[in-house]
Amino acid sequence: MQLNITFRQFGSSDSLKEYAREKVERVNRLLDRAGEAHVVLSLERHLHHADITIHSGAWVLRGREKSDDMYASIDLAMDKIERQLRRYRDKLKSHHGKEKVHHRQDLVKVRHDVFEVHEPEETAEASAPAAQTPVAESGVARLVRTTHLAIQSLSVDDAVMQMNLMNNDFYVFQNQQSQALSIVYRRKEGGFGLIEPHLPDAPVAATGT
């Protein structure tokens, strides 16, 4: 397996590299078609983030976690990947040899931007009478993360499986049945939902008799 490890917002560590490598290679032994893995370790607001992605054929497994300790974050992220791998291991094997081979450059890609909004902190002036205080500015949105998603042609069941393998709350795909760009998402009440475009039926042209 080809493994890439990236450090962001803090210096590279040989001990962390070796620890992440051992964890990923342990999961690699459970996969029939492990291709490459990418580990991103970053420090944000005093929290240690671990983002681990493993490719197995056309499938992608992903775990993301954060904690006060980078070793613990790696453990938690890998635990997520291992849980989904054990859940779908038999189904992944059944897809071996049946999946279509996609060239990544030929896949349609969409961009997913994640923003967070910081509301202005309340100050002593803000608690003064309205006539004596200026109007508070609205919250400012800051781009947190951008992800480029390659769109695959899948059945709805396979799209749900891929969503779970990536530990995501949604997944964008091309519905094999309708050929439409669709989204499956996790519902708070349990289960999942499906969103896809619906075009109204074209009006029937009147014909003379």
Automatic annotation (TrEMBL):
InterPro entries on file: HPF/YfiA_ribosome-assoc, HPF_long/plastid, RHF-like, RHF/RaiA, Ribosom_S30AE_C, Ribosom_S30AE_C_sf
GO molecular function: ribosomal small subunit binding
Pfam family, one: Ribosomal_S30AE
Ranges of residues in domain Sigma 54 modulation/S30EA ribosomal protein C-terminal: 142-194
Localization (cell): Cytoplasm
Keyword Oxidoreductase: no
Keywords, comma-separated and alphabetical: Coiled coil, Cytoplasm, Translation regulation
BP terms from Gene Ontology: negative regulation of translational elongation
GO cellular component terms, semicolon-separated: cytosolic small ribosomal subunit
SUPFAM superfamilies reported in the protein's UniProt record: Ribosome binding protein Y (YfiA homologue)
Top-level taxonomic group: Bacteria
Similarity section: Belongs to the HPF/YfiA ribosome-associated protein family. Long HPF subfamily.
Its biological purpose: Required for dimerization of active 70S ribosomes into 100S ribosomes in stationary phase; 100S ribosomes are translationally inactive and sometimes present during exponential growth.
Subunit structure: Associates exclusively with 100S ribosomes, which are dimers of 70S ribosomes.
Protein name as annotated: Ribosome hibernation promoting factor
Species of the source: Corallococcus coralloides
Biological classification of the source: Bacteria, Pseudomonadati, Myxococcota, Myxococcia, Myxococcales
Gene name of this polypeptide: yfiA
